[in-house]
Every structure is written in structure tokens, then in C-alpha cells.
Amino acid sequence: MTDSLEDNRAPKVQASGLSRRAFVRYGAASVGVAAVGGGIAAMANRPALSPRQQGLPTIPDWTATDIPSLRGRSALVTGGNGYPVDDRSGLGFHDALELARAGADVTIASRKQERGEEAVRRIKASVPGASIRFEALDLSNLASVAEFAERMRASRGSLDILVNNAGVMGRKSREVSADGFERVFATNTLGHFALTARLLPLLRKGNSPRIVWVSSSRALMGAINFADLQLAQDYDYGAAYDNSKLANLMLAFEMQRRSAAEGWGISAIAAHPGIARTNLVPDGPGPDSLEGRNHRYMPFLFQPPAQGALPTLYAATSPQAVAGGYYGPNGFLGLGGLPGWAGIPEKADDQKTAARLWGTVEQLGGVTFGRTA
């Protein structure tokens, strides 16, 4: 195969003032308007349900009140410290809140201790008696990931639900992690992959364990280019995010295939939130970016974060959620709504590329799956 997976790009458009990638992202060959993560892109080809999704039952209206009792079950949510400020909050905060409300023993893990502890305090205020704690974790730092996983293994015997939620959008200049990896790739994809590998022994001892990978509708515009996986040669903050979310989707599907083939007993599921009023753009490219202007001038398109969290919560808790499934909002163009089947981009089902990506991130993350008891 070639080193580039469907990396079809439009030629440069000099008059627009946009980069080549931005032109593709925001206008090339467009018919309809669709929301893509933190921004709005013109897209004619929102993915339909893939052949392997055909014939699956329609998902009835589902909200957080439909989460079954999770008493006796443990959950880990990465991120989770985005407690509400004005009309914005993090998806992971609402994941943790509803898991705790359903009775799970919840850990939220993120970089910012003060914010994490405040998120725990607010959840306990909303859910008296909630079992929830904060643990420090910097997903962009592989040493931090290893130390966190060691603490988890030392303090508990099993883990039932892992929500790989934390995510960042890049800033306009390329940044690298302490390990030298591009920051978005390091946080969104590599850190979560390494964390999951190191927690595999706990997950395999869990009660019907599930791993939920949070992707994005922007995965449709991502590409896996092994010649420049971390965009060292051709950086674009939007492409970095899109690529990381495509990678997460592919790794979720590959993880489920390997779990089934190797008998891990773990369900790997993917979900995306549509678009919601989160801090992803303010903390990333900022209010003057194309995504930031979408937030400012078209706020009516952005659903509340609590609703954006529903597909992830469905994937993490519903008895009807299917291993290897992909869930997102069921409303107009997948922008918002209640949980439904999300269309899978054809490139995300490329098993040959997914297997190569798996081996690559194993090597970069210094981890190996499936060799632990």
C-alpha cells in the first residue's frame, strides 16, 4: 500500500487566503452544511451507515435517565475536569456525573489538579453520596501514563468501564509533548492507546468491561499518512485534530477485532458528540479561528454539553450497545440529538491500515497488547 490513506487534497486557492487544508475543510466541493467537532464545514458526503451496520435495529429515544444501575461497577473517565462555566463545560464532566449518579465508582483523570478536584466537588454536590475521585494524569506524557496506570493497578483489582474522552485541539503553531510527539496526536491518540494497554489486565478482570473511544464527526476529513503521521512536514491544527479522531475510530474497531480474536472479553465501542458548547476551541485555536467564529456567529447550532455526552454514555452503559459499534447524535446531519448509529467513514473500516496503525502506536507508546494474563 502507499504511505497515504485517502489523503485527497484540493489544489491551493490563492485568492481565498485559506491554507490548502483549510480550503478543503471549509468549502471544497460542498453542498450542505455539517458540524464537525468544534467547527462547521461544508460537506456533501456525510457518511451513511456502512454495510456492516445495515439491518441493525433503530435505537429508541435514550437519555441519561435510561442508564441502568451501575452499583458495584468501576469507571475511569479521562478528562472530566470541565465543570460548567457560563454555557460551556466538558463532555467528560457529564460522563462522570451521570456514571456517578447511576452508582458507579468513578475516577476522573486529567492534568489540572485544581480543576479536577473542583469537578469532583461539584459532582458530589449534585449527587450526594457519589463515589468519585480525581487522579492526576497527563496523557501527552508517556511517563505520566505509566505512573498513573501503576497506581490504578495497585489500588484496585478490576476496571469495568474506560472512557477515553480527554482531547485537545491544536493551536495555530505546531507544539510537541515532553516525549517529542505532536501534542494533539500525543494526547488524543497515543496517550489513550498506551493507557488502555497498561490497564488491560484490570479491564480483563472487569464485569462485562467496555472501552469507549471518543471520536468526532471530523474523522471523515482525517487521513492516516504514515510518511508524516505527526504533521512535522505539513502542520495544520485542524488536520491534526481530524487525523487524531480518525485514528481513534480505527483503533476502536481494531481493538474490538483483536479482543474477539484473542479472547480478551472486552467490548470496544466508539462514539462522537456531534457539536456541543465545550472548551475545545477556546483552549485550542482560539476565538479568532474559523471554529471560534462558528461558535460566536452560529451558537444555535451547538447543543448543550450534557446532550453531547449522551452517545458516549450510551456506548458505556446501555445493554443494547454493540461491541465494535459507533454512536453519535441522531438529529440533522448528526449535529445534535439523542444517541443513534453514526455513519462510519469508509476509510475507518480499512483493516490493513488499522493494523499498521496499531503496530505503529504500539511502538511509539512502548506498549504491547494481549500479552498479559
Automatic annotation (TrEMBL):
Keywords (A to Z) from UniProt: Oxidoreductase
Entry annotated with the keyword Nucleotide-binding: no
Tree of life domain: Bacteria
InterPro entries: NAD(P)-bd_dom_sf, SDR_fam, TAT_signal
UniProt-listed Gene3D superfamilies: NAD(P)-binding Rossmann-like Domain
PROSITE patterns: TAT
Molecular function via GO: oxidoreductase activity
SUPFAM superfamilies, per database record: NAD(P)-binding Rossmann-fold domains
A Pfam family per the record: adh_short
Annotated family: Belongs to the short-chain dehydrogenases/reductases (SDR) family.
Name of protein: NAD(P)-dependent dehydrogenase (Short-subunit alcohol dehydrogenase family)
